[in-house]
Amino acid sequence: MVTAAFPAPFRPTTKKPRWCEFHSALLPHRFCCLTVTESLIRQRAEHNNCEIFSLEEISLHQQEIERIEYIDKWCRDLKIVYFQNNLIPKIENVGRLKKLEYLNLALNNIECIENLGGCEFLKKLDLTVNFVGKLTSIESLKLNVHLQELFLVGNPCCDFDGYRKFVIATLPQLKWLDGKEITRSEQIQALQDYPIVHQQILEQQQAYVLKRTKEKEESQNNLEEKENNEKAGKKKQSPGFDGQRYTDINNTILDHRQNTENKQRNSDGEEDNDKKNIDEDEMNRKFWEEPSQYTPESRLETHRYMEKLRESKDKDKNQKKQKPQRMLITPEGRVLNVNEPKINFTLTDDEENNQFILDLAVYRYMDTSLLDIDVQPTHVCVMIKGKVFQLVLPAEVKPDSSSGKRSQTTGHLLVTMPKTQEVIRPKPNSTSTARSATSTKPHPDVTRATRHIEKLEVDPSKHLCVDLTNIVAERKTVAQGPLKFYPQKVPERNNDDFHDNPEVPPLLD
Between β-strands 355-360 and 345-350, what pairing exists: parallel, antiparallel or unpaired? Predict the structure, then answer.
């Protein structure tokens, strides 16, 4: 519950309230939206597929919004709206939200309850920690007959004597006030004391209005005084041509020693940074320790101050992030090879088509709009997401005839660059072409029948396959005939020196 997170210490005080620091810590650093925009609403409608016409719930908290706009035209079906922790000074442009049931405007700069009569089904209204001092403005909520819960804790009107009785008697449809249930006996007592309580509320409210008028005048005077001091400080700090301001032209010539000291001091960047940090710390300490009232103007002042701090920090970060510009061409005019994105590439010399083909392995799912190709006669330069790829070509090319395309399969970038020098190829020999032509022509004596491939027929009686019938027959003849023994041939002796060794087996013919 919001009331538990922000208790009673948020009252007018003579010092700058601590909630300023807490509020500044909650402020987002990405967005700085002063009004409601369509892009912001669509971004917050992700749960509804970014459709805003049928949106029923939206959260626009901590967006530094200073005015409620457009939601009553774009989102007519809204039932729940969160606007807490912004800088909204007035309730407006919500009267057409007929289906609205819950409106959260906690931690804003609202001073009056108004323009909610058109929200017929409003059941819960949260105005915790605002600046509602005109308590009689709650009479505008009488038309919201379905209103059951109201939160006004943390507003100046809560300090009025008879505050609770006045609210209960004015809005009999309420069942809960500031998170506490309203009993039947409390309603009867409030109705009985209403005339006296009403008079007390009017007197206290009138005193508060006078006080607020003085606070506005003081804040306006302080703002003008600060602006004048800043202008005067800038004029005092505005230097002359050498860093100082002079009234006598004779004093413009500085001492040589002083000049050298100034140059050394300006060249020492660390000393300047330390001095700047000390000045910022001193400014922060002075701002947070300066006494101030708890008013809508102090909240705006804190917001503006924190916004300046964020801008200065972002500026310093951007300056630190900025790298020195890479040299692409030397002062002598020599083109350098640069590969800042660190991607793979191949340069192919297509001699057949007399061209160079550069294959850059860019990211497959990268948008083509992030690529910028610049082909020059001697080199090619490709910008890939702000990073430079530059390659020197081995020969001159035609920039006007060059082309680039993305591969549909790999996503690589293919840059085709035709060469300026055409390759002279020898003409084919006439005799060789004639011979090739005559060799291809068939001989006139060759007929159509001879051109046909002839297949040789083999005599089936001379085939090499074994006939099983003959084998069986031969076996029978061998078995029936007598057995014949063939004598073993004895090798003849060639000369007298030959000796027959019995251990050596005989040679077979």
Answer: antiparallel
- State residue 110's pLDDT score: 94
CA atoms within 13 A on the CB side of 503: 0
**Adjacent-strand bridge partners of 356:** 349, 417
CB 131 within 8 A of CB 153: no
Cα torsion 429, 431, 433, 439 to 10°: value is -150
Encoded tokens for 144: 């919201």
First to last CA, the chain: 119
- The answer to whether 422 and 354 are in contact (CB under 8 A) is yes
Summarize the confidence of residues 355-368 as an average pLDDT: 88
Closest CA to 106 of 69, 149, 47, 71: 149
pLDDT in tens, 298-320: 888 888 888 888 888 777 776 66
Measure the CA–CA gap between 211 and 207, rounded to whole angstroms: 6
Answer whether 66's CB lies under 8 Å from 44's CB.
Answer: no
What contacts 24+ positions apart, CB below 8 Å, involve 75-80? 75/41, 77/53, 80/56
Beta partners for 355?
350, 418
Other CB atoms within a 10 A radius of the CB of residue 328 amount to: 13
Distance CA 297, CA 290 (A): 15
Quick one: tokens of 65? 């919004």
Question: Amino acid identity, residue 452?
Answer: H
Instruction: Name which of 201, 150, 157 is nearest 171 in CA terms.
Output: 150
**Spatial contact of 341 and 387, defined as CB atoms under 8 Å apart:** yes
Give burial (CB, 10 Å; 0-12/13-18/19+) of 384: buried
Q: From CA 349, how far away is CA 394, in angstroms rounded?
A: 9
Contact, 4 vs 154, CB < 8 A? no
Strands 124-126 and 403-406 turn out to be unpaired
Q: How far apart are CA 183 and CA 418, in angstroms?
A: 91
Nearest-angstrom CA–CA distance, 127 and 137: 13
Strand partners of residue 380: 375, 391
Residues 6+ apart with CB under 8 A from 361: 343, 344, 345, 410, 412
The set of long-range contacts for 36-42, using a CB threshold of 8 Å and a minimum separation of 24, is 36/60, 36/65, 36/67, 36/68, 36/69, 36/70, 36/71, 37/70, 38/70, 38/74, 41/70, 41/71, 41/74, 41/75
Shortest CA distance to 142 belongs to which of 165, 120, 175? 120
pLDDT band with cut points at 50, 70 and 90 for residue 275: low
Nearest-5° angle of CA 60, CA 62, CA 63?
70
Q: Which of 52-56, 77-81, 243-247, 301-305 has the highest mean pLDDT?
A: 77-81
